[in-house]
Amino acid sequence: MEQVEEPVKHEREYVLAIGCRITPSGSPVAFNSLTQLQQQPFPTPSPFSFSVASTRWSSRSSVHHSNLLLRFLVLIFSFISALTLATPASTKKKHQPSPSFTEYPELIYCFIAASTAFLYTAFQLFKGICDIAHRGILISEMASDYLSFVLDQLVGYLLVSSTSVAMPIIGQVERGTPLRKGTIVSTSMAFATFLVMAICAVLSGYKLCKRIGW
């Protein structure tokens, strides 16, 4: 029996010698950390991580597409607002010409505000379409968020101020003239443009807040 126990004892000592190491001080130190790592199972990837990433990507793309749709509406409304003021200037009655919007400084200001909104929105649409194909090809995303937040509010102020100064002019324009009808349509379209631009400004502020602090 003693002869059988001796090789078993030697095998146990051999296994302990493999599982331990000798420090410079000469004391054996067991690989407790290694055994703990071996005992712990490998972490499995959570399926919620993929869902969160996909949700963030889908929310970002939905905001981007909604912004493009709103910009397209601003483009149409501002174009109609400027066109209805410029078109009656070329129309004439049988005996006397129709008054032009250039005779009223308030209507000139309304025309400039609508034209500015049209040009600015055309640039934003062009940039948004380019960002879909090549992200950041025209301007970086951070600079774009800051500029959009500031310029959206500026264009919105121009539109609402032009609407407020153009409304009293409607009563001063002669009734039955194309300019009076054009002024009514232009003022209505300018106010609708302001409402859509205000939503665009809210979306720009949302994107900027997400970039800065969220």
UniProtKB/TrEMBL annotation:
Keywords: Cell membrane, Membrane, Transmembrane, Transmembrane helix
Ranges for domain Casparian strip membrane protein: 62-170
Residue stretches in coiled coil: none
Membrane topology category: Multi-pass membrane protein
Compartments where located: Cell membrane
Membrane spanning residue stretches: 68-86, 106-126, 146-170, 190-209
InterPro entries per record: CASP_dom
One Pfam match: CASP_dom
Superkingdom of origin: Eukaryota
Membership in a protein family: Belongs to the Casparian strip membrane proteins (CASP) family.
Known partners and oligomeric status: Homodimer and heterodimers.
Name the record gives this protein: CASP-like protein
Organism expressing this protein natively: Hibiscus sabdariffa
